[in-house]
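ugh ok fine here u go
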Amino acid sequence: MPTATFGAGCFWGVEAAFARVSGVRSTVVGYAGGSLARPTYHQVCSGRTGHAEVVQVDYDPEKVSYQELLEVFWAEHDPTQLNRQGPDLGSQYRSVIFVHDPEQERIARASKAEREHSGRYQRPIVTEITTFSSFWRAEEHHQKYLAKRGLANYGLP
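structure:
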């Protein structure tokens, strides 16, 4: 089963959005793109580890394409905000696509280019596209955070 990894601000809402997509088998929140092994939430929030808050998505390509997952990614945040989303500030909230193979990279770059030329954004897109290297699962209380609080409906279209 293929995996996709996206950073689009605070991982709670982003995880809930992907969990609702038909064909997504599982979602896990965590940290990627940094220099420290097994970072904690507090270490990542310090801004000194280089990690982004991310959602790792395992999906069935027979039911949902990587391109369709990118559509969810773009819809869930403002890709023109550098190192922030809304009130959340810091590089851990950056817009980033961690690609797992050359095909994901090709699709992600084409998707970004399409948006850059679409005229729908008034500012430049700052989304990074970079090769995936490691993922560290966030603490258990961050997993399915919104669903645990009755603030997200999973499995609904």
